[in-house]
Amino acid sequence: MTTEQDECMGSVKGQLAKLFEVSLKVTVPNEPDVEPLVAACNGKFGDYQCNNAMGLWSKIKGKGAQFRGPPAVGEAIKNNLPTSEMIESCFVAGPGFVNVVLSKNWMAKSIQKMLVEGIDKWAPLLPVKTAVVDFSSPNIAKEMHVGHLRSTIIGDTLARMLEFSKVKVLRRNHVGDWGTQFGMLIEFLFEKFPNFEDATETAIGDLQAFYKASKQRFDADPAFKERAQQAVVRLQGGEDKYRRAWAQICEISRNEFRKVYQRLRVHLEEKGESFYNPYIPGVIEALTKQGLVEESKGARVIFIEGINIPLIVVKRDGGFNYASTDLAALWYRLNEEKAEWIIYLTDVGQQKHFDLFFKAAKRAGWLPHGDSSYPKATHVGFGLVLGEDGKRFRTRNTEVVRLVDLLDEAKSRSKDALIERGKGEEWTEEEIESTAEAVGYGAVKYADLKNNRLTNYTFNFDQMLNDKGNTAVYLLYAHARICSIIRRSGKDVEELKNKGTLVLGHKDERDLGLHLLQFAEVVEEACTNLLPNVLCDYLYNLSEIFSKFYSNPECKVIGSDMETSRVLLCEATAVVMRKCFSLLGITPIYKI
Ligand code: ARG
Asked: Where is the Arginyl tRNA synthetase N-terminal domain (predicted)?
């Protein structure tokens, strides 16, 4: 029998919760819906604990229960726990905590099983099948700034974690490719390049400068302004020449964005604002029929209880805006794409917009009230990127940061560091290039991801490229070192996985094993709360716990009689580290 459940065990925490669920049903049969509360405790009180006894006691105490206080409830929960090879021992402590010590044998066997069957078996189980992650989403002809870089990096990681958890993820680039500014850009394009179709990226050069120049023209010359306004109408009316000019401008921008995505190896599917444009009138009409849309100061708006400023869905001039597009896109994602979880990544500055727009969708009955049921829409906000001076990040004397330059600099600095370490003589040019890339881009990503996303973070090359401390460089090197230990053992790991035996005899081995086994619940937490830094913390701790094991003379790997088992433990650590890197969008390195 191989059902989905059998294939994926879920986390250790989840497996224990299932056992406690059984026990709770027996212990308090009159309280059928008690959720088991299980948490890792990683201390002298065991590995996990179940915290239900205290809360249960206050629920049942008046009702003639047979227990005499929370510790007795805990005792009963313990006694009713089904036998399981997972558990070595169980005891009640303090006011009624039921502590669980995992079986070392079971732990060792589970890790070895993961080595044989692959880490995908450790994927957490999530309650959604399809999710939209709306991320990156820069605006055509405008700068793709560091805010978009954060959106790209964090969004990609969230998408990767959900994909690993078997969720079908629609990676959406909701680019700003529609709106009145296009009239001005198109008119300017016609003026500058009468044969506009020949106006390639190289001819136009810097699209942002082009944008600025056209804006100047727009502000200075009323006749131009007039033409620009007509151009919008003709574009929106679908006139061929205008559509082609628009497509061309989009294409030039797209080529710029692509350079960033290529370097970061981020995959996105573009469905820009223009895509949803045809759906807007129908959506607004439906909302109007429901009585949600009102007239206010010439605009059409949706009011939300308790909020003074309404959501404007049709502007005074009859045009649609950011919010109308977002409503249509949400409608499309829910009804056409059947997404159950729609996740939006932008800086926290847009929080109000999303709050208002989600509330409007709830009023319309598109989303359930409350945030615990599906379908669900979530705004994942993040803080600013700051420069050394504590102000919004800018490079040198230019106004905006060219993201491509930023990434190139990270790579070239990593390359210099490799040359300095003497790798120039040792490695091929190709190895240097690919390692410099992995380290440089990995450093930029990790420096962003390791912070709680809501806080601002300071962009600092020296810090992120330091090979000590909580950096990608340190972690990538740590991984490479583990690989070299395995190589030096001269053992064929594939053979060991099947023929050797992993045991967790020493405390440091057991600690490492326990941390490895907690991988699934950490990914689950990072997904549920949309917090990549949780995974970064886990990865950093993993390398620290590994170091403690490896540097302990009692846990000697090569040449000890526990060599086989310890090489397997090294391999398991390397496998989990690599999965963390892969979820964080970082390419691992194998030697240093
Ligand atoms: N283009 C927007 C910006 O640069 C971000 C779009 C986010 N996605 C959305 N569905 N509103 O700020």
From this structure: 14-102
